[in-house]
TrEMBL record:
GO terms for cellular component: plasma membrane. This is Sugar ABC transporter permease protein. The keyword Thylakoid does not apply. The keyword Cell membrane applies. Residues 1-179 form the ABC transmembrane type-1 domain.
């Protein structure tokens, strides 16, 4: 819905918010690593919910970092949707929420599917953010961190490393093979239109 509001409101603020989303995609993650950890530590102390070494913290971080690509792709698709559809619905008495949920949202289904798959694959394979937020020695581990646990200081268990790596990538390969058509359709439909 943020992409729709940003795309349809032609104000300086909507342009500034859109470019903020784009900037968060352009700035490398390594630049924001340390400020992210200190911000999450302070936020956890302020609200009383631990944001580091917890599931809710990593979920919150992924929602924030995944939102930029989502808004970018959905914004590109919404630019291609004729504004006349929304005007006709408005003339017929639809509220802005009804216009979005009854007209725009059904059109976004293939693009939302693509964005969900791409974000899911990124989260599944990500190593750096979980190792910062959860720690490598913590109780909560993602698959890439668990695979890394087989690498010791003096011993590397290559048979277990390769088996775990294969089991970690197998679901993503199967998902991509099943959803390849939807991913390509969504990327083509969500491409930036001039």
């Amino acid at each position: 819905m943020a992409a729709w509001v940003i795309c349809r409101n032609k104000t300086k603020w909507s342009a500034a918010i859109y470019f903020t989303f784009i900037a968060s995609m352009i700035i490398p993650f390594q630049v924001v690593m340390l400020p992210l950890i200190s911000t999450f530590r302070r936020a956890g102390d302020f609200i009383g919910i631990p944001m580091l070494f917890s599931v809710q913290g990593i979920v919150f971080a992924y929602l924030g970092f995944g939102g930029a690509m989502t808004v970018f792709i959905l914004n590109g698709f919404i630019k291609g949707v004729p504004y006349d559809l929304e005007e006709a619905a408005s003339i017929d008495g639809c509220a802005p929420e009804q216009i979005f949920f009854k007209i725009i949202f059904p059109l976004l289904t293939p693009v939302i599917t693509t964005v969900t798959i791409l974000n899911g694959m990124w989260i599944w394979n990500d190593y750096l953010l979980p190792s910062l937020m959860l720690g490598r020695a913590g109780d909560i581990k993602t698959l890439p961190i668990a695979v890394q646990a087989f690498v010791g200081s003096f011993v590397k268990q290559w048979d277990l490393i390769l088996t775990a790596a294969l089991l970690a990538i197998l679901p993503m390969i199967i998902l991509f093979l099943i959803a390849q058509k939807q991913i390509m359709e969504g990327m083509i439909e969500g491409a930036v239109k001039g």
